[in-house]
From TrEMBL, chain B:
GO terms for molecular function: ATP binding; ATP hydrolysis activity. This is ATPase. It holds the Pfam family AAA_21. InterPro entries: ATPase_AAA_core, Bact_Antivir_Def_Nuclease, P-loop_NTPase. It comes from Pseudomonas frederiksbergensis. Residues 24-282 form the ATPase AAA-type core domain. It comes from the Bacteria.
Amino acid sequence: MTISFVESGMSFGPYAVDEVFPIEQSPLYKHLGQGLMIAEFVLIRPGRGESEEVWVIEAKSSAPRVFGEYVDEIRQKLTNSVQLTLASCLKRHPHAADLLPARFLDLNLGACAFKCILIIKGFRKEWLPPLQSALAKEMKSLVKTMGFNPGSVSVINDDKARELKLII
Amino acid sequence: MLNSVELDNFGPLQHLRWGKLSNINLIIGANSSGKTFLLKALYCSMRTLEEYQRGNDQRTAAEILADKLYWTFQADKIGDLVTKNADSPLACKIKVDSREFRYSFGRDTTKSITSLENHVPPRTSNSIFLPPKEVLSLQNIILKSRDVDKEFGFDDTYYDLAKALRTAPTRGKNHAHFAKARESLEDMFDGKVELDSKTNRWQFKKGNQKFPIGATAEGVKKIAILDTLLGNRYLSKESVVFIDEPESALHPVAISRLIDIIVSLADSGIQFFIASHSYFVVKALYLAAQKHQMSVPVLSFVERWSADDLIAGMPDNPIIDESIRLYEEEVELALG
């Protein structure tokens, strides 16, 4: 069984239902109350070799207007999403086991790679590298404290997302 | 291999500690932060160790070092290298192949270094300093200025390079890594620079065409220098190559290719110290560190010197900060 959805003007999917955690729509997030920013969804993807990767996806239909605020907002969303996903997988939240898609409960949390990805629709390719550098810099403390690989933060446009089969 | 460096009161470098050095080491920082100074300080030490007891040279290590410092930094007296207002002498301690070499002197020193300790065995390698500007078109002028006129102007980094390029190419099979690197270097500009033995002038050869060196692009000349030093066997696997601003005169695509070649040469044993302002150099080295899971120690200057490693991520640095600022400016112009 697969799932597809539209977000920020992009058609995401189809993904296997048990591999996608629609974190923004999840009761796990909604029960936390207002004031906490969160990414769109979290996806399990095959990694290199036998390992799996967890991709935290934030989608945007617009380019930054106020650069610093934009980068900080994305940082908060991605950081909160990583933390909530990990906490849910560890069943730190009530009912997490019932609310998480099945495959997330089987993740090897100590070994799987986490990737934080911002997708911006219609964003010019030449604008991507500096935005990626800025976001990577903002997220360095999370990447370091979580033991993620240094290249775990990516900013891509819809062309690249299509190439990666994230959208159709 | 240079393993670590400790400098105190060495010109703009008041207190610098850099350890766990690798085959490729990067220095980044704004203008006048002391990057070139550091490269030159290390170069002087390495050349002292390499010239000491070579052939029939009877000079002591202290004599070689004093001479090297004098002609490299071209101060009236080497004591002028001591940091202004410092309350202790200039001190340098490096480890080469895990053995120590250290010296120190005060501001009144004219040419005689009395405190020097060397535990590094004599070396047969040749280290080299590649300055930002090419030297091929100035080679004869540099040699005359130093050999005949004995004048300040071209420091020892230029003079030594001009002499090294004079060494004739060696026939026979070169080290595999070196041969491959030369192919890649010559590939970058679809040709090679050679010394015309009849006219004793450098020329750029592309297919059947020959161009005088004066009419050859700066980037080609720069790449040709490394190619020549690999071809005439001046460089060996034990050499240390100091490159000041590899990006100067090079297109970003050429920079990336040069970094690939440097990574391959480093793999063969050559040690590199690179000082750079370039986003492309830093990014290309960061990617190389990730791709090859290779340590690339980076010393960066933002208010003070701090040491990181590109294998652990991009360090905070003004080069990236400026690229972000330019991006913001561009977005503001386009969408604001």
